[in-house]
Structures are given as structure tokens and as C-alpha cells.
Amino acid sequence: MGSMDISPEIISLIDEIKKDKTHGASELARQAVAVLKSAAERSQADSAGGFLLEQREIGQRLMSVRPAMAPVYNIVSRLLKTIAAEAEGLDLDSVKRLTLSRTDETINESLQAVARIADLGSALIASGDRIMTHSYSSTVIAVLKEAFNKHQNIEVVVTRSGPGRTGERLAQELGAYGVPVTFIDDTAAGLYVSTVDKVVVGADRVCADGGVVNGIGTYPLALVAQRAGIPVYVFCETLKFDTRLNSNEVDLEEKEASEVAPPDSLPTGVRVKNPYFDITPLELVTGIATENGLLTPEEVISYLKG
Q1: Start-end of CATH 3.40.50.10470 domains in the chain
Q2: For the whole prediction, is pTM greater than 0.90?
Q3: Secondary structure class of 96 (helix, strand, coil)
Q4: Which fold has domain 115-305?
Q5: Local confidence pLDDT in tens for the 306 residues of the chain
Q6: Which of 17, 136, 249, 282 could form a disulfide with 210 if both were Cys (CB 3.0 to 4.6 A apart)?
Q7: Is the dihedral of CA 32, 206, 215, 119 positive or negative?
Q8: In CATH, what number does 3-113 get?
Q9: Which residues does the annotation mark as catalytic?
């Protein structure tokens, strides 16, 4: 079956994930699974083998579409492995049903992991805390909403989070929920960090050497937090742990240069760079809250070594 056979609808759904610069990695991983589900529902394959081949090909495209985001790769590769193992000797209809139920289960597991992190993470936040956060993360939003439900009197300082408006979206969601939010430019992070009790961020990937890949600007924030003696917590599901790549091997994805400087606003020959992610070394992190509990940096490294 040639790649020509993937339907245009599915191609455009894959493309949406590629172009999405607002959602965090967990959400995009769940979207990738939803694409496989949608492909299974629409499949024109006339045999179980053909159906599995089609799923694998779509899966391959999904796995390569967001190189910096480990969960997109992890969730799809695990799902395809599970289905391939369980599909032995099944007919087309059964393989389809299996795929639909496994995709639903996978999405639910990820949502449950986030709910567990929200529970655990909100327990790290005390009544009256002022929290600073940077770069959009659905997991961080879940934690902060849960903490707000528990305490009612927390405040959040949200950074602009680079030129892509992801911080704005974070501030909108928390503000609409009733959380008191102060919105600042990234350049003010050093000034404000000593006024907060904790810095909390999500992650798109935790590399094999422990480097935390997250929205650009996370590294300098972690540095100023360490200088000010403010703890930095990362909230992320273990789906983000990547045993394959070290920090220096990750593609940090470039966004449109026009976000940083309008086209033609600078002399020709001035190169504009707009990386999407940076890497925070684990020694700047106080702990990583996962669905399996709060891990110290040492525990993260031994988890990654497996």
C-alpha cells in the first residue's frame, strides 16, 4: 500500500499536529491517538494485514511530526506495538474493533495520569502560595486549577512565554477560572521571581541524560529561580520520559522568524532565530511530579536508566 492511499482528511489532521504551536505535548499525544482512531474508523482496507499496514504508516508519520515532543512518539509506538501483538490471527473486523478500543483506552490512561499529577502537584502547593509558571502546559493548568479549588487563595504569575502567545492562552484559561493572575513579559521574570514561593512548569520531554525540554525561556527562569532560592517543580507524565535521546540530540524545532521580527524590519544579512524549546539541566530542578509520585532528580536519572 503506497503512502498515496492515506486519505487527505487524515493527512490534514497530521498536519494540524505538526503546525500546532499552542498545545502542550500531552494534548498533542492524545490528538495523535485520535488521528489513528479516526483513520481506523474511515479505513477502506480490505484485509487485516492491509489495515495494520495503514495504521503503521500513519503511525510512522505521527511519530516523526513533532521531534521535540517525546509523548507523541512514545504513545504512538507503544499503541502500535500493543495492537500488532494482539492482532495475531484476527480477522479485519476484530482488528478494527481492537484498534478502536485500544485507542480509547490509551487516551483515557493519559487523562488519568494528568488527573493523578493534578492531585499530587496540588498537594505541593500550600495555601497562600504565589506561583510562577512559564510556557503553556495542560498538565500545569490542571494542577493549578486543582490547587485553587483546594485553597482558593493562591496567585499565579504567568510569563508571556516567548513570542508565540502561549503565555496569553495560559493567563486566559486561569483567569477565566477565577485564579488571580499577574501577566508579565519574560524579561521581568528575574525581577518577579523573588516574590513567588515556587516555579512550576510542564515538559515536552525529559531526555535520557535528564535534560528537561520545555518551551523556550524555561532554562533562564530556572536559573534565576535557583539564584533566588525558589524551588522549581516540573509536572509531567512518564510518557514524556525519553530513554532514546540525550539533550544534545534533540531537534528543538524552529518557529516562524516573523514572530520575533516582522519580515523586512531588519537589514538583510541579520539572521533571526526562533527556537521553540530549550533545555533545563536537571540540577536546576527540585523535583518532577509524575503520575507515579514525586521524583527527585536522582530518582529521575535511575528511572531513565531503567
Answers
A1: 115-305
A2: yes
A3: helix
A4: Rossmann fold (3.40.50)
A5: 444 478 999 999 999 999 998 899 999 999 999 999 999 999 999 999 999 999 999 999 999 999 999 999 999 999 999 999 999 999 999 999 999 999 999 999 999 999 999 999 999 999 999 999 999 999 999 999 999 999 999 999 999 999 888 999 999 999 999 999 999 999 999 999 999 999 999 999 999 999 999 999 999 999 999 999 999 999 999 999 999 999 999 999 999 999 999 999 999 999 999 999 999 999 999 999 999 999 999 999 999 997
A6: 282
A7: positive
A8: 1.20.120.420
A9: 204
